[in-house]
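Each field is set out underneath.
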Amino acid sequence: MNPVDLLRKVPLFETLPPADLEGLASAVRLESFPPQVNIVEVGDPGHSLYLVVEGTVQVLAPGRSADFELARLSEGDFFGEMALLNSLPRSATVRSVQEVKVLVLDKADFHRILAASPEAALKVLETLSLRIRNADEQISGLSDKAVRDALTGLLNRRAFHERLAQETERARRYGDHFALILLDVDRFKALNDTLGHDVGDAVLVWLGRLLTEHTRQADVPFRIGGEEFAILAPGTSAEMAHTVSQRLVNTVAAARPPVEPELHVTVSAGYAVCPEHAVRPNTVYSLADQALLRAKSEGKNRVCAPKDTH
């Protein structure tokens, strides 16, 4: 692809006069990267714009345990354009998926061309505010999709484990306490097999809404599995956790999901409190999960606490 055509795809340059685009094209250089190489890394200072000529790259955002993919870019796409305008650290890592060829435009060359062409500098200023706004909206949307369950709109399992680790660290450092409540829809597989996945999905959406409406503003509900939900409740004692769990179980049993035929849906619940029952994230989760399994095995539609309590 012609360098001028590639540069014209960058919103920052789309209104530049042809002569200035030619000047930018004369300043780029071609670089190649083998597969699985970080072309730029999150946190590094940015100095260059990259335009993909051949191959595919991943745009990766850092996670607690592993990076997650925000996007894939291929021929004609670009990344790193804001590095031409500021010295802020890179906001994401870009890694080659296969052998990649890119055109690189350095900040120093870009500034040299702007200094020589006031018209080009004015055009860049005119498009800059719109470019920044669009980029912010795209990043915000991608980040939200990474931590939201597509069906219910609740935070997902990834977000849950990150938040659980944060809450246990806060409890350790500041002496805070919180409760983890796990809830599971009773006989959900039979419901799906009998009435179909559309009805099952509708029940899950309805349950997600109930959990949001019947918890405190400070409490955070999550969907962490097929029919399994979690609530992190800060500042909640064991006694309060039992009361809240029972109230949620009763609320679900008394309500009816908006599906046909009319259904009586129940949930079982188990909970654990940090630091009363455990201080490590995995242990808090394990104790709540064991309590949930006992609630399921002892008849469903009920609450169980960790053993030796209540």
Notes: The chain has a mean pLDDT of 86.
